[in-house]
What does this fold into?
Amino acid sequence: MFDRHSILKAHYRAKIESWDWEGIVADCQETGGTYLGSCLSLAPSGKYYTFWTSNQTRKDETKDEAFYEVLDEVAEAHGGWIESGEGDPCDICFVVRSSEEDEVS
It folds into this structure.
């Protein structure tokens, strides 16, 4: 059975896992969050979706959905999560809970 979603996820997993996660996590130990890039350069479609977007296609949506699923899974595997940038929703950031937050809990 041909499962396009699984094939796309495997493709994006290989790319995302090749990023310097050791360095990304180390940077987060200092700052709590690390800028990974803009959705315009990281997402397969290179698009930021809004309800008035007219140039998105189902193909774009399918690829981006698989990419972001894998990005979330890999981020979680490294002890963090993905957030949009503060002030610019196109920014993609990897975030970890700071040690100060852990001490308060």
